[in-house]
Structures are given as structure tokens and as C-alpha cells.
From TrEMBL:
Signal sequence residues: 1-15
GO MF, one example: odorant binding
Name of the featured protein: Uncharacterized protein
Gene3D superfamilies tied to this protein: Pheromone/general odorant binding protein domain
Keywords, alphabetical: Disulfide bond, Secreted, Signal
Family statement: Belongs to the PBP/GOBP family.
Biological processes, Gene Ontology terms: sensory perception of smell
Protein's organism: Hermetia illucens
Primary subcellular site in the record, as a coarse category: secreted
Length: 178
């Protein structure tokens, strides 16, 4: 019975997580930069996925992961949310195994910033493309986005055709002044 309750809780927790997009990441980064007064030279490095091991970077990483619901100081990494974020169109069991390898329980008793940074660097060292693509993939795989893109292309094509027809027809049309 306890096992079923645990599965239900995990299912609800995973079901309530919303996969974050590149826009979410940009917004979150901006909030953390502002909250932590991160210097501009750091921001430029972060944009290039360059994260040096110092207090500013470590606390910035903790802030971003926390706001994106991937880490909290009470429990550490949220494995289920990470699997949802990183496991889009991937084998979830495989992703969970990899995520778990980097999600320690802070046995070292590090400060929260170091704890978050350590896991983040582990993810990046083993799965940089998976981490990056999980943020960018939303644009190409979100069904709503595909519909909008499809209709945008259709609309553009239709407008181009109408414009072409009008350009060809207008010189031939004689307008009467009734």
C-alpha cells in the first residue's frame, strides 16, 4: 500500500511539472542575475555555457535550477522533473539512470550553492547536448508551435500567391466609374 501511495505522489509530482523552454531559461537567468547582482562578464560567460567554479557561478546555478524546479535546498535535485526536462523523446529509464548518477544527496555536507553546482557540472560533463537540447527542443516539438508554424507558412504561401495573382491581374483590370 505504501508503495502505491509513493507511486501516486511521484506521478502527481511529475504530472505537475511543466517542461521549461528557452524563453523560460532566459527569464530565469535574468531574474537570478538581478537577484544575485551577477557582474556582466559572468553573464557573457554563462551565455556561452562557460561556468567556472567560484561562489558567484555556483550560487547562480543554484538560483536557476531552483527557479526551474529542478533543485531545492531541502531535497536536492528533483530527479522526476529532471527526467521530464531532459527526457523528451528519450528513453525515460535511461535518462533517469543518468540523472540519478549526478543527483547526490549532499553526503559531503557542502553548502547549497556547491551542491547544486556539483550536480549541474556532472550533468554538463556527461550530457551537455542533452541539457541544451532539452531547452531548445521545445520549439520544434511542441504541437502548438508546429500548428502555428504550419499555419504561418500556409498564410505566407497564400499571401505570396495572392500578391502574385494581383500583380498579374491588376494591369489587365479596367475599373469603371459608375
Amino acid at each position: 500500500m505504501k508503495f502505491l501511495v509513493l507511486l501516486a505522489v511521484i506521478g502527481v509530482a511529475a504530472a505537475t511539472y511543466t517542461i521549461k523552454t528557452h524563453d523560460d531559461l532566459i527569464k530565469t537567468r535574468g531574474l537570478c542575475v538581478k537577484e544575485l547582482n551577477v557582474p556582466d562578464n559572468y553573464v557573457e560567460k554563462f551565455k556561452k555555457w562557460d561556468f567556472q567554479d567560484d561562489e558567484t557561478t555556483r550560487c547562480y546555478i543554484k538560483c536557476v535550477l531552483n527557479k526551474m524546479e529542478l533543485f531545492d535546498t531541502a531535497n536536492g535535485f528533483n530527479v522526476e522533473n529532471l527526467v521530464e526536462q531532459l527526457g523528451q523523446n528519450k528513453d525515460k529509464t535511461e535518462v533517469r539512470t543518468e540523472v540519478t548518477k549526478c543527483s547526490d544527496k549532499n553526503e559531503q555536507k557542502s553548502d547549497d550553492c556547491t551542491w547544486a553546482y556539483r550536480g549541474f557540472k556532472c550533468f554538463l560533463s556527461k550530457h551537455l547536448q542533452l541539457v541544451q537540447s532539452s531547452i531548445y527542443r521545445f520549439y520544434s516539438l511542441n504541437p502548438g508551435t508546429l500548428i502555428v508554424l504550419k499555419h504561418s507558412k500556409l498564410l505566407k504561401t497564400s499571401l505570396e500567391r495572392i500578391t502574385k495573382i494581383l500583380k498579374e491581374a491588376l494591369p489587365k483590370i479596367k475599373f469603371s466609374s459608375e
